[in-house]
Amino acid sequence: MSSKFKQFSLVFSGVCIGVLISLNFAARADREVPPSSLPVQELRSLAAVFNSIKQNYVEPVEDKKLLDNAISGMVAGLDPHSNFLDADSFKDLQDSTKGEFGGLGIEVGMEDGFVKVVSPIEDTPAFRAGIKSGDLIVKIDDTPVKGLALNDAVKRMRGKPQTKVVLTVARKGENRPFDVSLTREIIKVQSVRSKLVEPGYGYLRLTQFQEQSTIDLVKHLDRLYKSGPLKGLVLDLRNDPGGLLSGAVGVSAAFLPSKSMVVYTDGRVEDSRHKYFASPEDYARGSEDVLKALPAGVKNVPIVVLVNGGSASASEIVAGALQDYKRATIMGTQTFGKGSVQTIIPLSETTAVKLTTARYYTPQGRSIQAKGITPDVIVEDSLQGSAPVFLREADLERHLINDKDKEVAPAAPKQPAKRRNDDDPIPPPIEFGSKDDYQFAQALNFLKGKPLELPPVAASAPAAAASAPK
């Protein structure tokens, strides 16, 4: 038995080493990589566990499942945003960047073994049902979430359109978990929306950064300017969980001088160090420069950018760049704080790893990681100052530290949460850009030079930042 196990261990260690070498080659084929010693003892331990499961587990387990689980655990243990993408997950990721996929419309992560909502996507089943950032999903239909891998939980929430799923949700301030019944849909995310609020004042909302976001942005700006020049523009990035970096660079480039640096990344290897500029090479990706069609005046129109705790990643790149160049006034509440770059490294035609490879920095060298963007003018979501409880990057287990500033974003003062009775309906979300949107109303007041209706917590915002645009 001992000799058989030793033989198996050597063979399995050889397989592991071969896998590691092939992954290294796939990710580094275009550059020299210094050799590194492999942890042979740890690989033997892995082989021992593999052999123990094969011999002693109560039911037979396929080798592929064990190896996929080992890979998944190895990657997921790094940070909240790195993970192994099996065939289904890889396809879902590709579909989501194109703006169409099936499911409920929730950006999620893992926290203490449960699925935690980062942000509901606007105009999706989850958003309409009142799911909020920070909600903890403890059960999907009759299946407890505790112990499920994130990919498995996501698969259970997705399904055929027009089928139902019941999420059991735990929410801070509630006396007990409650059920939310949702009907799955084909999620078609409209990346950009706009409207002319009144003569001279436009509203532009980005819900997610996709392949077509820069093109759509130009179309909407052109539509807004058809009625004449704008005196002010509200750029709404609230609850925008991010998306493609090229989309963030393109949106920033629409409002910044040509060839301005928008963002730069820095990591351990040369490929992860890059500067991105307001140039077609960085946002057009080989296509036609759509920003040539921008209406006159876009580069100079006064802008207020609205952000909150659901504004993450690409949203923070845009807000940070416009803030660094003093091109816009950032208004709202502290953003999510996701300042890391994930690279999709294909392992085969159907699988890949999403790996954190760098941190990104604003043009002035600020790291947003685990801190976020601090608005120039703090405006809570209502006159009473009660803001929703947002899950932030600094709340996630194993999050990367901010290498420029070890301090995390200060928590906003919270009002005591009102407990909901089981029979109480879930309040519908406020429609962004509507007459009931308090933050939007303050952004318009700011652009018009009118005083802001600020609650006591917002009155402490820097006086210089709160001055109206000229």
TrEMBL record:
PROSITE patterns: PDZ. Signal peptide: none annotated. InterPro entries: ClpP/crotonase-like_dom_sf, CtpA/B_N, PDZ, PDZ_sf, Peptidase_S41A, Tail-specific_protease. Keywords: Hydrolase, Protease, Serine protease. The keyword Protease applies. Residues 401-434 are annotated as: Disordered. SUPFAM superfamilies: ClpP/crotonase, PDZ domain-like. Residues 90-172 form the PDZ domain. The keyword Oxidoreductase does not apply. NCBIfam families: prc (TIGR00225). Belongs to the peptidase S41A family. This is S41 family peptidase.
